[in-house]
Design goal:
Blueprint lengths: L17 H29 L2 H18 L10 H25 L10 H24 L2 E6 L2 H13 L5 E7 L17 E4 L4 H8 L3 E4 L17 H9 L5 E4 H9 L9 H7 L9 H34 L4 E7 L5 E7 L23 H9 L7 H5 L4 E3 L6 H10 L12 E3 L1 H6 L5 H17 L2 H13 L16 E2 L5 E2 L3
Parallel strand pairs: 1-2, 1-4, 2-3, 4-5, 8-9
Antiparallel strand pairs: 6-7, 10-11
Length: 490
């Protein structure tokens, strides 16, 4: 903390604030404690101090390594659990290899207890951190409109993120009775930008989230290009409060890029010299290696499902459809037929819940996503990848590119059988649903990696049986397309 003539240190509480405390608790619960426990158990079994320290160090390194995922693991419980189970095993394997190389090899059975102990401590750590998040919230103040603050609070609730609590907003005027979030008494008007410092001290605000600032937020007669960050930094640099852009918060916690506030920063990140997406060669090797073992399970399923489709109505088993792929190149996507023959004689149209064109068997195939399995052939041909944005039809793409900004950016990468947007949003079913998925597709394009693809595949396998038409509810103001237009999601 800075010690300035105008601001005394006595105004800052000595105790750890929630942000720092959360990081410390997570480090101890999921990294240090499991590693120390594994080392102590190893020492109890072998009575070798050097080997025990090596086991603890290797497991700690593995836990730190797997935590470097570019995806928000809080939204992926299955993948997070898988990483927690795998990391101690990898650490123990690394320790066993080092001991073998140095001539101090131990039986593999000696590593089972340390790994089990690490798992047990991590399970206890999960319970501790959940209780801690419930008891100590990070107080969040939004710099922007009341509607934006309300949307952020709603989406944090919908995603089950309890560690952060939006308490209000700073803006250019007191709220009216119909202001979103005010009628419930949950959110408060915290004042103008000049009141940020006093509100941070009085309400113990730990995080300031900067939404889209309006020129009038700086005060009447102020420079229309005034940057609110400047005045806030001038008044709060000596306080234990952190500040970040709303887009960054949405990416880190909620796993999507809000269309209404996406600006050139997203493109600058993609075009930055240090941006290192997955190599196309590694991505291709990843697809082919996984397609090979998946085919062992997929081919029999396709055969059984195809036989059922043929016996049901005698129509064709497969359904081929033109889709738009990487760089706008069209290809023919293959699926198992789930609708009655000639279902689109009147032209392309969205499929909705309860669509009468879907057959009885087709409903089951869609719910279990078995109808998508033939697309593994598109992956082998190089037209698709295992993980990526879902390909859309050319007729619909043309409309969506005119309707929603940045839609064409989805074509920077190959389309996938599954993807981040499918996990978070389910089936689009409409232009609005497609826009909601676009927010997640842009996030994936920015954060894609081999590890991210693995985690998405793991999560997809577990969630394959859910309702394909379900979607995480988007807040009311999420899809702002232009300065004066809003699209409301039902």
């Amino acid at each position: 903390m800075l010690d300035t003539p105008n601001h005394s240190r006595v105004v800052v509480p000595v105790a750890l604030r929630a942000l720092e405390a959360q990081r410390l608790v997570n480090l101890i619960a999921f990294k240090v404690s499991p590693a120390v426990a594994a080392g102590l158990i190893a020492y109890a079994h072998t009575d070798e101090l050097g080997s025990s320290v090596l086991v603890a160090t290797a497991i700690l390194a593995a836990l730190l390594l797997v935590d470097r995922s570019t995806l928000p693991l809080g939204l992926m419980p299955t993948a997070r659990l898988a990483l927690g189970l795998v990391a101690p095993v990898l650490g123990a394997a690394a320790a066993a290899w080092v001991l073998a190389v140095t001539g101090q090899a131990l039986p593999l059975a000696e590593f089972q207890a340390p790994v089990a102990g690490a798992w047990l401590i991590m399970a206890l750590g999960a319970w501790v951190t959940t209780r801690f998040d419930d008891d100590r919230h990070v107080q969040v103040g939004v710099i922007g409109s009341a509607g934006f603050a309300s949307d952020l609070a709603e989406e944090l609730d919908a995603a089950g993120i309890r560690a952060y609590e939006v308490i209000g907003w700073f803006g250019r005027g007191a709220p009216g009775p119909d202001t979103p979030g005010v009628g419930t008494g949950r959110l408060r008007y915290l004042g103008s930008l000049e009141d940020v410092r006093s509100a941070v001290l009085e309400r113990r605000i730990e995080l300031l989230v900067c939404g889209r600032a309006e020129p009038t937020d700086a005060g009447e007669g102020a420079d229309p290009y005034h940057d609110p960050y400047v005045s806030i930094a001038d008044s709060c640099l000596d306080l234990p409060v952190r500040m970040l852009d709303a887009n960054q918060l949405y990416e880190d916690l909620l796993g999507h890029v809000p269309l209404g506030t996406t600006d050139s920063a997203w493109f600058r990140y993609i075009m930055h010299p240090r941006f290192r997406p997955t190599s196309p060669l590694w991505k291709r090797c990843f697809d082919l290696a996984n397609a090979a073992w998946m085919a062992v399970f997929v081919v029999p399923l396709i055969g059984i499902a195809g036989l059922g489709i043929k016996l049901a109505d005698g129509g064709p088993v497969f359904y081929r459809q033109r889709r738009v792929g990487e760089r706008g190149k069209e290809f023919e996507l293959i699926k198992l037929r789930t609708m009655v023959p000639n279902a689109e004689l009147s032209g392309p149209q969205w499929s909705e819940p309860g669509d009468e064109r879907v057959t009885r068997l087709g409903r089951f195939l869609r719910r279990t996503h078995i109808d998508e399995l033939p697309q593994l052939w598109n992956v082998v041909r190089g037209e698709m990848t295992l993980v990526g944005p879902r390909p859309e039809r050319p007729e619909i793409c043309a409309e969506l590119e005119n309707r929603f900004p940045h839609y064409i950016r989805r074509h920077l990468v190959k389309p996938g059988i599954t993807g981040w947007a499918q996990l978070r949003c389910g089936y689009a079913g409409s232009e609005l649903g497609t826009a909601w998925k676009l927010c997640h597709d842009l996030f994936y394009i920015k954060r894609r990696s081999i590890l991210a693809d693995w985690l998405i595949i793991v999560e997809t396998v577990v969630l394959a049986g859910r309702d394909a038409h379900r979607a995480l509810r988007a807040p009311r103001h999420r899809f702002i397309v232009g300065e004066a237009s809003e699209v409301h999601r039902g």
